[in-house]
Design a protein that fits this description.
The structure holds 2 protein chains of 2 kinds. Chain A is about 0% helix and about 50% strand. Chain A is mainly beta. In chain A, strand 4 and strand 5 form a beta hairpin. The radius of gyration of chain A is 13 Å and the shape is globular. In chain B, a hairpin with a 6-residue loop joins strand 5 and strand 6. Chain B is mainly β. Chain B has no helices and 12 strands. In chain B, the strands form 3 sheets. In chain B, strands 2, 5, 6, 10, 11 and 12 form a 6-stranded mixed beta sheet that branches. A 4-stranded antiparallel beta sheet of chain B has the order 3-9-8-7, with no helix packed on it. In chain B, strands 1-4 form a two-stranded antiparallel sheet. In chain B, about 0% of the residues lie in helices and about 55% in strands. Chain B starts with a strand and ends with a strand. Chain B is globular and about 45 Å long. The chains are: A mainly beta, B mainly beta. The interface between A and B is medium-sized, with 22 and 25 residues.
Chain lengths: ~120, ~120
Amino acid sequence: GAGVSQSPSNKVTEKGKDVELRCDPISGHTALYWYRQSLGQGLEFLIYFQGNSAPDKSGLPSDRFSAERTGGSVSTLTIQRTQQEDSAVYLCASTSGLAGSYEQYFGPGTRLTVT
Amino acid sequence: AQSVSQHNHHVILSEAASLELGCNYSYGGTVNLFWYVQYPGQHLQLLLKYFSGDPLVKGIKGFEAEFIKSKFSFNLRKPSVQWSDTAEYFCAVISFSGGYNKLIFGAGTRLAVHP
């Protein structure tokens, strides 16, 4: 079946512009995660959704970052007034959300470059 | 706070050499451990996982990992690497908090296998 998809695959934006990154989880997966992969810094947790609610936003680096999820499916990560340090690969993952189901399935990521 | 340490950031091997990548975690509760791999230009894929039972777990492509509770370690091994194993490898632990889980990743190890 279809895996996690993300769009766009690459995004180049000017400093100060807003960007939106999209994630389509695996159909039926209720849990959705956003991570950021920066060069030399591994993967950093950003936010978690269960259904449409986000019980943990602790990883969002600043108030310029926000995310929402609608219909328990698609999620959008928005970065306002982008800065050069926001350049990274943004990864989305989903799981079924069932008890004991911990394996996260990752999308291909969106590579964001802020010039 | 939970954390995962991968001590080798870059590893260079010749084909047929044996591989061991170190992973140590700090987490006081029940551990669920993962190794993910990211081949060049591809998205993160699960190599293997440990939840319980036999501490020696076998994954895809001939990889295995051993969970040693007393050492808080989950090292990844392969007896004979191939050029196609060139990739970045991430160790991760599940962190349970507030009734849900998230992955805490190590910084990753870049493996280059020369023919």
